[in-house]
Amino acid sequence: MGRKEIYAALEIADHEVRLVIGELFEARLNILRVERVAMSGVTNKEITDEKAVVSAIRKAVANATIALGYRIERVLLAIPSLEVTRCNQKINVSIEDGTRTIRLFHIQSGFNKAISYRAGSHLELVNVGCIKYKVNGITSRKLPLGETCDSFVMDMDLLFAQKKAVYAYARCVEQANLEILDICLDAYAMAQEAAVFEQAIDRYVVQVDLCRYNTCLSLFAHGKLMKCILLKDGYSAWYAELKERYGLSDSVCYRLLQNIFSKDPQENDARIIFLDSVDDQQIQLSAQEVYVQCFDHIQDWIASINETCRPITQGGNTRYVISGEGMNIQVLEQLMDLFSAPAAGYVPQTIGARDGAYTTAIGMIYNWKEILEIRKDERISVNRNEMEESVEAIRKIAREGEGGFTRKLKNMLLSDK
């Protein structure tokens, strides 16, 4: 059996835990399972109830384990983009073994030397990105294996984040009895999946991660992540009045915005679109009422984004890329012209995870694949023995021919003759 590259990516979001398990096969990601478990242990990307977070992680992992038939033992973990600091490192690597040929261990030694840098006692290294190699005066992003030279230069960005947050998130995962395969900034992972790095080669790109209770803005330029800031208003601010007035839950308000909301007042008439009973009181909502209660708040949110980014958009060629769970709200796609620069939404199109909420998790898996070119880490996220037994059992069923139901149906039909 060939080596299976199965990885689990875990994101501790502001109101739920998201777990995406996928298999990398010939540069394609096949989604095996996704899990979402609601919890209320995070505020403004800081862990406020560790027990609630740990419990949600355990439940998500248990659900996935039952569905897949083998245990998940280690995960890729998303780290919140708090106090992100970028430090550039240029490492000169000498070929001292007399071969004048670049080998993998030369690249690994340069990589390890670079990541030994410390930016400050309150920061922790999370990502190594934008690695370039300068060999014989030529710069390339491709691994220069086999190139002939006396020395070469590795140019890379080290991305640090708030140490307190890194340790808090990691502790939750470890208390859920999981190993951490690697960590990745949520903004960096989202950019990997949404191809933001490529778009930012010759322009500024503002990546907007729209969550329920906050919004993370990340600035990219020259193909690099430059800065991240957190705004303490997410899409929940859009329906706050609606929720308070009618006593609705967040999930109900989210579905109202997601499925039936249009920016055109003519399409929001007085027809009843929601009917429920809360505390023995019947609630009826029309599309018009949802529009009146929410539309101005959506415009206010966009205006706040424009004001925050005004120094950037005034400076020249800029583009917005909006993703995250909030991008599932269809009306937002209709309002892209309200942003102060060209804007586009992004929702993953990977089968099994076509949801803006999974952009970060999918990006983590692709980012790990890039790092593996240097690290050559053969660990996967699942128990290898159990996974191989499960795959072999499936193959055995396939070899034996028809499945149980088909065989029983065929026997019944033949026995009637």
TrEMBL record:
Coiled coil (residue ranges) = none
* UniProt domain SHS2: residue ranges: 7-194
* InterPro entries tied to this protein: ATPase_NBD (IPR043129), FtsA/MreB (IPR050696), SHS2_FtsA (IPR003494)
**From what superkingdom does this record's organism come?**
Bacteria
Query: What is the name of this protein?
Result: SHS2 domain-containing protein
**What organism does the UniProt record list as the source?**
Amedibacillus dolichus
Recite the lineage of the species: Bacteria, Bacillati, Bacillota, Erysipelotrichia, Erysipelotrichales
